[in-house]
Amino acid sequence: MIRVDLHMHTRYSHGRDDPQAMYAAAQAAGLELMGFSEHSPRPCGYDYTREYREQLRESLPRYVSEVAALKEKAAREGGCQVLFGMEMDWLDGAEAFVREACAACPFDYLIGSVHFLGNWGYDDVLETWDSFSQGECEQHYRDYFAAWRRMIASGLFNIAAHPDLIKIASVDRFHRWLNTSAAEELVGTALRELRDAGMAMEVSSAGLRKPCREIYPAPLFMRLARELNVPIAFASDAHTTDDVAYGFPRLLTYARAFGFTESVSFCKGQLRRHPFGM
After folding, report:
1. Which residue, 115, 179, 205, 252, is the most exposed by fewest CB within 10 angstroms?
2. Cα separation of 200 and 85, whole Å?
3. pLDDT tens digit string along 28-66?
4. 115: which residues sit within 8 A by CB, 6+ positions away?
């Protein structure tokens, strides 16, 4: 059974529920360790159609305080333990902003993610992908993994979020590309760099709730990660209490099928191992 969930959001960004409710859901799900990983604020110019930047910026001190209180309470009373993390967008062209955000609080761990190619939030208006040719999609995939590698090379992060999020709105075309030797070589290179940076690869059930309807990442990533001894970290990317530990039995079966026997977490940047239970 998976008892660790390291990727959760709250009403302070674009989630539904407050930290207290998310913690109660984690306890109810039988988790032993949960990590709050709210989004970091982004600078202007990296925008979504339904932007939550100002709400997040204004609420961040309250969010930090509430998570700290839950962490202290959990340590005092036992039960599900709490880690304080954050999901940071890697933003090409705004590296100084990203570095400052990563140092803004005493985080236990940091999740790095790529939601923007340049200033384009590619997972915002998904219908945009319908107009792309196979060739245009493949260029976006290559651009995504180039940005992903720059995120890894920054040395700022512990976990790489939803590694193939770029497939969200073009999953069939993504797999067509992924089945090429060039794509496999690119993914393998990125995963070696991830391992050498001391990071873990996130295995997330969030894709099961998205239009791609499959786990992040695809089987090729899992096979290569196992061959390269890349550690994995489990996540639901929960945005509501209903999402906490979502699909975890399926994630466990998936990871075991590739030979994984443990997941990891990070506390104050130090890797901790969590062998799979029965």
Report:
1. 179
2. 14
3. 999 999 999 999 889 999 999 988 888 888 899 999 999
4. 89, 121, 122, 123, 165
Contact predicate 275/265, CB 8 Å: no
**In terms of pTM, does the model score above 0.70?**
yes
Give the separation between CA 22 and CA 71, rounded to whole angstroms: 13
Q: Which domain CATH number covers 125?
A: 3.20.20.140
Quote the mean pLDDT of the chain.
96
Please give the span between the terminal C-alpha atoms of the chain, in angstroms, as a whole number.
6
Amino acid letter, residue 186:
L
| Distance, C-alpha 97 to centroid of its chain | 20
Spatial contact of 272 and 1, defined as CB atoms under 8 Å apart = no
Residue type, 48: Y
Locate the DSSP E strands across the chain.
4-5, 33-39, 81-89, 109-113, 116-117, 120-121, 159-160, 200-204, 232-235, 262-267, 270-275
What tokens does 187 get?
């993914």
What is the count of structural domains for the chain?
1
CB-count burial class (<10 Å; 0-12, 13-18, 19+) for 78? exposed
| Angle, alpha carbons 36-190-85 (nearest 5°) | 10
Residues 129-158 pLDDT 10s:
999 999 999 999 999 999 999 999 999 999
Q: Residue 159: is it exposed, middle or buried by C-beta count within 10 angstroms (0-12/13-18/19+)?
A: buried
Gyration radius (Cα) of the chain, Å: 18
Q: Which domain holds residue 205?
A: 4-275
